[in-house]
Amino acid sequence: MATVLVLNSGSSSLKYQLVDPASGRSVAGGIVERIGEPTGSATHQSGESETGETVRDARVPDHGAALRLVLDLFDEAGPSLADAGITAVGHRVVHGGAVFTEPTLVDDDVVAAVRDLIPLAPLHNPAAVEGIEVARELLAHLPHVAVFDTAFFAPLPAAAATYALDREVTAEHGIRRYGFHGTSHEFVSSAVTAHPAVVANLTAEGRRPESLRQVVLHLGNGASASAVLGGRPVDTSMGFTPLEGLVMGTRPGDLDPGIVFHLIRAGLSPSDVDTLLNKRSGLLGMAGANDMREVRKLADTGDADARLALEVYLHRLRKYVGAYAAVLGGIDVLTFTAGVGENDHRIRSGVVRDLKFLGLTIDPAANEARSDEARVVSVREQAAPGSTAAALPLVMVVPTNEELAIARQAMELAEG
Ligand code: AMP
């Protein structure tokens, strides 16, 4: 077995998974939380320990201490990293700017360049730099690979990537639409292209995979949409920062920038507005809860704010699917992924219900069935005489797996 340790460093947390890229299996994983706070904790999951889960409460002053704690947990609860065949470390980095358009083997210059990108992602890149630095120190014998959340969207067409601002200002400040969640959109759109139902339909229609028009909705706590033509992104809803686009757990998505000036003139500081838009808006702002399950519960008991929040959430989704169908010149597959997209069948039916004019349908039984597999949830019709495949366009649910995607990319570079 050859495995990759995937690290996702947040400002106060360190998530990790030891992944076998060949089988796709997660061998062990966990999270260190409340780094830098008076009390932290680590939860480690591994098939080797009796209970499956080991929990440690300890003060974790910084990311170095967090990674040391993780390595201790591997030693104590297993599996031993050496026995598990650790071959590389993969780091999730949110912002690659215009510099990093592919996974990159980390050296000192790469660390310096990721640090230079901090002004573009002040909430995310500092932790990534810290995570990379401590991991290179503690796991110095392994190759380290940085995988960027923006990379998949680097080839966005200029028409989609450019903000209609003064060109000197955009050039001076690196302002363009970068897009985020790229690792997930790439993983899911490739899984769709390879799915037997999609392959069967393309073959039945005599079409090449390059012509496949997909819309992917990544609906988690953060949420984003992408339009993908033949595996290449042609548009995405997150822009210069992850604030733009869909309604999210705590972010509003699309917003008139005039609101920002209005609030600042009314006395809020820029950092107040930053907090409002990143942490206090979206479902949380409208309904008082950022978790879709809670918003649903509130709406089901008749809470008017939660009902409105769901309507705003769905309205935005329909708008984006319609817009992306226009950008793509039609739609062959609409795919739902991430926490809400994979689990909430009412969100899926709520989006598709009003999109019949695009040929999109939903099969209630398939949509409501629970599964961890990539699957078709639209009505199955005969695509061609003798074929049992559902006809295009399809609606699908495809579980995302960013850790596996990072592990595969890291392994490829490490072996390269
Ligand atoms: P993610 O960011 O992909 O981990 O998604 C996390 C979000 O998924 C949570 O905040 C919930 O809103 C949502 N979620 C998870 N499970 C469910 C479920 N069974 N039904 C509805 N939403 C869910």
From TrEMBL:
InterPro entries: Ac/propionate_kinase (IPR004372), Aliphatic_acid_kin_short-chain (IPR000890), Aliphatic_acid_kinase_CS (IPR023865), ATPase_NBD (IPR043129). GO terms for molecular function: kinase activity. The keyword Ligase does not apply. It is found in: Cytoplasm. Keywords: ATP-binding, Cytoplasm, Kinase, Magnesium, Metal-binding, Nucleotide-binding, Transferase. Substrate binds at residue 92. CDD domains: ASKHA_NBD_AcK_PK. Its cofactor is Mg(2+); Mn(2+). Pathway: Metabolic intermediate biosynthesis; acetyl-CoA biosynthesis; acetyl-CoA from acetate: step 1/2. Mg(2+) binds at residues 8, 402. Residues 40-49 have a biased composition (Polar residues). It holds the Pfam family Acetate_kinase. Homodimer. Catalyzes the formation of acetyl phosphate from acetate and ATP. Can also catalyze the reverse reaction. This is Acetate kinase. It comes from Promicromonospora aerolata.
